[in-house]
Amino acid sequence: MKTYMNFAGFTVCLALLLLLTFGILQWLHIPAGSFLDWVIAGACFWWLLLIVTVPWNIHFEAKEVLAEAAESKQKGVVRQGSVGSVGRVGRRPKVGGIIVGCILIGKCLDAVLTFWS
Predict the structure, then answer these.
(1) Which of 35, 48, 62, 63 has a CA that sits 20 to 30 A from residue 87's CA?
(2) Of the candidates 3, 2, 115, 102, the residue with the CA atom closest to the CA atom of residue 53
(3) Does the pLDDT of residue 114 top 90, yes or no?
(4) Where do the structural domains in the chain lie, given as residue ranges?
């Protein structure tokens, strides 16, 4: 739960930072694009952070569980079959996150190249 609160706090801080930066640039009459450009850029940055961070967090939490299971196995506390599924759970989000990230980056590059051609 603490991780999600940190991510929510980061989201609020990112939104405030973008709003403050855009406001200062507009106040100084420095051309910085429209507000919608800034909102879309902030949303893209947030989404890329999300699809990179969450799978790796799940992966490392699964590795931690595997390490604790190995320690429990040495003590004779854990059953043999219950540890294998954690390894699969730890790998799936990482691979899925990488695939989704590549697809999204490809779509963004396609949109940019279509816009500039």
Answers:
(1) 48
(2) 3
(3) no
(4) 36-116
Handedness of CA 2, 101, 56, 66 (dihedral sign): positive
Summarize pLDDT for 32-84 with one digit per residue, the tens.
888 888 888 888 888 888 777 777 777 787 788 778 877 877 887 766 665 56
- The contacts of residue 66 (CB under 8 Å, 6+ apart) are 83, 86, 87, 90
| Helix or strand run (H / E) with residue 47 | helix 35-75
- pTM given for the model: 0.54
Residues 26 and 32 sit within 8 Å (Cβ to Cβ): yes
Mutual orientation of helices 35-75 and 2-27 as an angle, nearest 10°?
160
Q: How many CB atoms lie under 10 A from the CB of residue 77?
A: 9
